[in-house]
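In the design runs reported in the main text, the only information available to the sequence generator was the tokenized backbone. The following block is the verbatim input for one such run; it is reproduced so that readers can re-run the procedure and compare outputs position by position.
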């Protein structure tokens, strides 16, 4: 993925009642981004905003975010990533640069997907806290300062996620039960309650996220990945209830393809961090069924064991061996 960042030379937002995050740059908050805020951990927060064909309404989203952030007093940047839009989104963003001095524009040379945009944006962020959100008017982005402040007030929390109280997405009849099933599978595998597995609005500590960015897939399931990465490694994830509006423009979500990717990504993430939790139950079930059937065979066929009983037992033993080997690899891996 080739990204060509285009950076403005802006003035910093006025310093207000919010204190900078501990360990921040003690320099004058009135100084420009070009002079002081040019590198990791030099700002309080970075809002990563992927855009793909959002031209008709992206300015409204920019205005909403910057109005809330300017009023908060946080030292921030708005990192807008154009994911090779086929409409006039990039032109609109380029023309808007003088209007939004805290905006940094990063146009992609080819379409990489929202996951790629968020991964690169998080890696390139100048803020100690990274915020993910969408540019389609669905999330209450005026509440972004609340998420940032939550992490400041709760140092034990590494990620805070906006848990949606309503579903306004496309394919609602199919999407709601499918998401519920996927979420329950994820909760079972992760061993904790997850109010919203794939919310697009979240804030997290950049330094905590860095080891997991390489795991992010290109598509929508990147939000599922970052949630499970934190939970699987004992990072505290909290949730704030949010409203969810009907999106502006055309949805890029494809139900069958993206639902399949969500399920696959949930299994992949748990396998990556805790494979024994996926494989061992299956192995024990096969062993249990195989041994039970073998006992029945011995009774019915006078100490003869059928081939399918042996196959069940051998398959269970093989899967159990793979589970133990995978667990050994995970425990010996230095992430």
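Verbatim output:
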């Amino acid at each position: 993925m080739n990204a060509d960042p285009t950076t403005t030379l802006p003035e910093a937002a006025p310093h207000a009642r919010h204190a900078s995050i501990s360990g921040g740059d003690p320099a004058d908050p009135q100084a420009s981004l070009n002079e002081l805020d040019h590198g990791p951990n030099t700002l309080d927060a970075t809002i990563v905003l992927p855009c793909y064909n959002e031209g008709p309404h992206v300015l409204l989203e920019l205005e909403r975010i910057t109005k809330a952030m300017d009023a908060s007093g946080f030292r921030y940047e708005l990192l807008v990533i154009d994911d090779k839009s086929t409409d006039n989104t990039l032109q609109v963003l380029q023309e808007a640069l003088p209007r939004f001095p805290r905006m940094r524009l990063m146009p992609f040379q080819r379409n990489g997907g929202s996951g790629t945009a968020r991964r690169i944006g998080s890696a390139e962020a100048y803020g100690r806290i990274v915020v993910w959100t969408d540019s389609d008017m669905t999330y209450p982005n005026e509440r972004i300062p609340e998420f940032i402040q939550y992490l400041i007030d709760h140092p034990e929390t590494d990620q805070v996620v906006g848990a949606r109280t309503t579903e306004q997405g496309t394919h609602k009849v199919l999407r709601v039960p499918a998401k519920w099933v996927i979420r329950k599978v994820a909760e079972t595998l992760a061993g904790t309650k997850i109010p919203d597995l794939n919310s697009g609005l979240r804030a997290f500590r950049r330094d905590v996220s860095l080891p997991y960015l390489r795991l992010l897939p290109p598509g929508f399931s990147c939000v599922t990945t970052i949630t499970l990465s934190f939970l699987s490694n004992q990072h505290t994830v909290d949730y704030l209830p949010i409203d969810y509006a009907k999106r502006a423009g055309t949805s890029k979500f494809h139900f069958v393809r993206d639902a399949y990717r969500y399920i696959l990504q949930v299994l992949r993430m748990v396998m990556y961090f805790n494979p024994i939790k996926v494989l061992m139950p299956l192995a024990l079930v096969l062993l249990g069924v195989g041994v039970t059937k073998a006992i029945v065979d011995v009774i019915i066929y006078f100490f003869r064991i059928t081939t399918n009983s042996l196959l069940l037992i051998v398959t269970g033993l093989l899967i159990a061996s793979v589970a133990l080997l995978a667990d050994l690899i995970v425990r010996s891996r230095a992430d």
